[in-house]
Design a protein that fits this description.
The protein is α/β, with parallel strands linked by helices. It is about 35% helix and about 20% strand. It is elongated.
Length: about 270
C-alpha cells in the first residue's frame, strides 16, 4: 500500500495534473490530498491512478481522462468524440452575447456544435433565444444533447453537413469549425482529438469558405456571423467575408492578443 505523497512523488506527470487524477480516482477534493499527503491508497486505486497517468503521459488530454471540461463557468461532459473546449472559444460566446443583448429573441445557429459548449452556453445565458445546433457526427451530437439535458438548456439539435441540416433564416450564426491545415505539424500534439473536427483541407480554410460563403442564404437582413479561426488566418477570413458581401467586418483578439474570431453583418436580405 502506498501513500498519496509517495504516488505523487513517483508520478512522471506535473504535480498539479497528478494530484487532479488521483483525486478523481479517490473521489475526494484535491484539497484533501494537499492537506493529507500521508493518506493511504490501496493497491487497486493506485493501479487505476497509474493507468490514468500513463495515458496522460502519452498525450491524452486531461479532459478526456476526467470526462469533463469547464467552459464559461459550467462543466461540460466530453469524450474523444468531440474537441476539448478551449478557453479562447469563450470569446465567441462573449461576442454573441453582446449582439443578443439588443436582440434577445434571436434565432441562433451553432454550426459544428461538438460538445455543445457554444449552443448550450448561449441558450442558458439568453433563454429567450431560439438556439439550433448542427453537427454531422452522431457521436458528437449525443454528447451535445447530454450536456444540454444535464445543464437544462433548450437547444434544438440537427444532424447534417453545415447548412444542409437546417431551414429558414437566422439572426446570428456562430461556428468554431475545423481550421487546421492538413500538414500542420501541431496536429501531432492533437492526435487524441477527432481529426475531422480539426483538419480543413490543405490550407485550413475549406470549411470556413463553406460557412462564410453559405451564410448569406441563411441570415436575416442585419444578421450576424462570427467564426473562430487560426492564429494566422485573420486576413484570409476577412477576405472571405468581404467576398460574400458582408459589412462591418471585424477581427477580435483573444486574451493572448491573437487574432481569433472574425465577425460581420449581412446588410440586407440576400437574394
Amino acid at each position: 500500500m502506498s501513500t498519496v505523497g509517495e504516488l505523487l512523488a513517483e508520478s512522471p506527470l506535473p504535480r498539479a495534473e497528478a494530484r487532479l487524477l488521483l483525486a478523481v480516482v479517490l473521489e475526494v477534493p484535491v484539497e484533501t490530498l494537499i492537506a493529507r499527503p500521508e493518506r493511504a491508497v490501496d493497491d487497486a486505486a493506485a493501479a487505476r491512478f497509474a493507468t490514468l497517468a500513463a495515458r496522460r503521459a502519452q498525450g491524452e488530454p486531461v479532459a478526456y481522462l476526467l470526462g469533463r471540461k469547464e467552459f464559461f463557468g459550467r462543466r461540460f461532459a466530453v469524450s474523444p468524440a468531440v474537441l476539448v473546449p478551449r478557453p479562447e472559444t469563450e470569446l465567441l460566446v462573449e461576442l454573441a452575447l453582446e449582439r443578443l443583448r439588443t436582440r434577445p429573441q434571436a434565432r441562433v445557429l451553432d454550426l459544428g456544435t461538438g460538445s455543445g459548449c457554444l449552443a448550450v452556453t448561449l441558450a442558458l445565458e439568453c433563454p429567450q433565444a431560439a438556439v439550433v445546433a448542427v453537427d454531422r457526427a452522431a457521436d458528437a451530437l449525443a454528447v451535445a444533447r447530454s450536456n444540454a439535458q444535464r445543464l437544462g438548456a433548450r437547444v434544438e439539435f440537427a444532424s447534417g453537413d453545415w447548412y444542409a441540416a437546417v431551414g429558414g433564416r437566422f439572426d446570428l450564426i456562430v461556428a468554431n469549425p475545423p481550421y487546421v491545415a492538413a500538414a500542420d505539424p501541431h496536429l501531432a500534439e492533437l492526435r487524441h482529438e477527432p481529426q475531422h473536427a480539426l483538419v480543413a483541407g490543405d490550407d485550413g480554410l475549406a470549411d470556413l469558405r463553406r460557412i462564410v460563403g453559405g451564410a448569406p442564404a441563411h441570415l436575416t437582413g442585419g444578421g450576424w456571423l462570427a467564426v473562430e479561426h487560426g492564429h494566422d488566418q485573420g486576413a484570409s477570413v476577412r477576405e472571405l467575408f468581404a467576398r460574400a458581401g458582408f459589412t462591418a467586418v471585424e477581427t477580435h483578439r483573444d486574451l493572448a492578443g491573437i487574432e481569433r474570431v472574425c465577425s460581420a453583418t449581412m446588410p440586407a436580405i440576400p437574394v
